[in-house]
Structures are given as C-alpha cells and as structure tokens.
Amino acid sequence: MTRKESDEKMNMKTKMKMKSETKTETKTEKGADKMTETPKLDLSVAERTARIVELERESVIQTYTRQPILLVKGAGAKVWDAEGREYLDFVAGVAVNTVGHCHPSVVEAITRQAKELIHTSNLYYTENQVFLAEELKTLTGMDRAFFCNSGAESVEAALKLARRATGRSEIVAAVHSFHGRTLGSLGATYKAVYREPFRPLAEAKFVPYDDPEALAAAVSKETSAVILEPVQGEGGVNVPKPDYLRAAREICDDCGALLILDEVQTGFGRTGKWFGKEHSGVLPDVMTLAKGIAGGLPMGAMLAAESVTDVFQRGDHASTFGGGPLVSAAALASIGVIKTERLVGRSAEMGAYLRSRLNDEIDALEVRGLGLMVGVELAANCPEVVNQARERGVLLNATSEHVLRMVPPLVVGKEEIDRVVTVLGEILEEP
C-alpha cells in the first residue's frame, strides 16, 4: 500500500467515525428529548384512568381523598375527563378558578411571561410583583403586601407578624374555622381531627362564630390577634351578621390586639364584593389572600397596615417563590378579567339566582351564602350526593355530612345553574 493509499484509508476511517459519532449524538439528543416529554400511556381511555389511579397510589403520599375521574381539560365553568365526559364544575378548584378554567387572557399573560422570565427569587426586583402589590393596595385599602404561595402560608405570615407587632402569643379564633394545615395555621383551625395528631401546637382559644359577647370575653391584654373568616368556608359557608366584624374590630382595639381577616376563600369577588370585609365596612390590621388571586396558579399574599408592617425587619420572613414574575403576571391578568367582565357584580347576581333556585326547587334545611359562595344544608348524606351528582355530570363538594358547598367560577350562567339545581333535585327525590 502506498503512502497516498494509506492516507486515503485513514481519512475514510476518520470520516466514518465522525459520521458514526454524529449519528450517536443525534440519537442521544433525540432520546433526551423523548425522555423530557410528558409520559404517555399506550392504553385504552378506561385503562389509562385506572393506571393513573394505581400510579398515584404507589407514588404520591396518600393525604387526599380523590374523586375517581381523571380530568384533562377545562374551559369556563366546565371540565372534561379522559373519557370525554363533560362536567359542570361547582367546586372550581375549591374556589380558585374565579375567572373560569383557562381564561384566554390569563393563558395569554402566562404564555407571554413564560417566554421572558419565570423565576428570579426575591433577591432581585421584578416589576410584576410591584405592580401587583400596588393593585392590591388599591383594591383592599391596606398599605403593604408580602407574597407567598398559598393560603396557609399567608396565614403563617399573618400570625408571625402579629406576634412581632404585639409581643404576645395568644390567638383567638372561631369555632368551625379553617385557616390551614401547616403547624402555625393549624393551631387556629378548629376541627380536632386536623389538630390532634400534631399536638403540642400553639393553639388558639376557640369561641362561637358570630357571637360578639363570647369574643369579647375571650380577648384580653394577652391576645396577639383575633383571626376570623368574613364567611366561614370549610366550616359550612356560615355567614355572620354584618355587625359581627364591626364588634370584632372594636374588641381588638380595646385590648390592643390585631384583627386578622382570612379572605383566602372570600376574596376576589367570591361573595359579591371584591372582599368579604366590604359587607361590614371593616378595615382589619392584617388580611390574608390566596385561591382566586392568580387565575389558577399557586399564590398567596398577606396585606397589612403600615403601622403593623414596619415591625417586620429584613430577614424576619421570606419566600423563595413568593410573588414571582410568572404568577404575578397571572394575578394581574386575572384581576383585569374580574374588572373588565364585571365579575364582582355578576357574582352577586348569579349568587342570588342560585340561592333563589335552590330555595324554590330543593327540600333543603337551609340555603345560605353571599355571592357565589353558597352552602346547602340537607338531611341527606352529602358525600353520597356528591358521588351521585358526579355520575350525572356535576361536580360538588361536601364540607360535612350534611352540608354541600357551591363555589363555581364567577363566569357561570343561569342555564348552568339551572342544570345543577335540576340534577340536585332529581337526586334528592330518589328513594
């Protein structure tokens, strides 16, 4: 073999090796892309649902009791499962999807922001968070905001702020209250089954809800804060008399305690006002927000009067993800939808219509609520009613054995309300 032939052979081997490496890299890259895709189950629809249920049981800590459907799509006040069945959603992610599932304006805002900046932490300034804080100040009448990721976190921040501001540790809360399941918020949550396994806790004094005299007797110079829901949600949609929160304000002022209003569920038009406190005209020292704030993305906020917030020093509290660019963009878009589509007024109108139809058509022990936050007390077993309604294409929630909670998206219409009332009536008429 000549030198020239040898060089040509070596060049050919080198080219073949490079080509092989390129193919290998391409195959690896394609494989990596494939691995990052959402896994798909090559099964029938029914088998897919069953398999997801099985995988969830094997892979997710079992702290939830889930309904046996696999939801894959949502729009407005409706959702669809993997088998294509349509449901009217009167749970709305537990009062979260205020502007409806996948509202185009919220989707567009999320998409646009996701292309620019998703997360930075709170070590840097981001404009969406500041714009949102300004918007919330205007809407609530409060002075400053702290952002977090959930209702329980917002309550934790409120309780921590109250202790820092007053130098006291005692909390007063209401019977049937719900403020969260983290260790701090759990101490102010009434239901014993939630608290007992995790004692000792910093537990609140619990007094009857909507009872100013009981509240006055419980609050003292040792009380850091009174925490109340303007309408109790998890407790069964309990609506107090308008003077209750006004009395609470006076009681707190007399003893130097802070008044915390937990508006996690009642905020953003849910009760037919922007916030539940507006029904009584009370301005709290601190208020907590979450659920309907960001169009379905996880977000919480604590707002407070400047006289209180000044006691929080740098480093006293923090949240890595709180008020990030993406969720703040979603929140600003959601608030914009509530304004432009006049959903606060719509909540009041549709809520009145829903309660009227329920009173006319349903043999209920009581129908109560404000706006589109409605409780229906029944003699029937409500968890079983929830199961039967689901089979008929309606999603409901039972807060207890005899109370249904209805918190549909604020975009719900009369025809959808009529269908839900008809389904509920048919269930209750069956032997």
From TrEMBL:
Query: Could you give a single Gene Ontology term from the biological process aspect?
Result: L-arginine biosynthetic process
Q: Which SUPFAM superfamilies match?
A: PLP-dependent transferases
Name of the top EC class for this enzyme: transferase
Among CDD domains, the record links this protein to:
OAT_like (cd00610)
Q: Which GO molecular function annotations are given, in alphabetical order?
A: identical protein binding; N2-acetyl-L-ornithine:2-oxoglutarate 5-aminotransferase activity; pyridoxal phosphate binding
Q: In which pathway does it act?
A: Amino-acid biosynthesis; L-arginine biosynthesis; N(2)-acetyl-L-ornithine from L-glutamate: step 4/4
Cofactors that this protein relies on: pyridoxal 5'-phosphate
Q: Where does N(2)-acetyl-L-ornithine bind?
A: 181, 319
Query: What HAMAP family does this protein's entry cite?
Result: ArgD_aminotrans_3
Other remarks in the entry? May also have succinyldiaminopimelate aminotransferase activity, thus carrying out the corresponding step in lysine biosynthesis.
Q: What is this protein called?
A: Acetylornithine aminotransferase
Q: Give the source species.
A: Methanothrix harundinacea
Q: Which gene underlies this protein?
A: argD
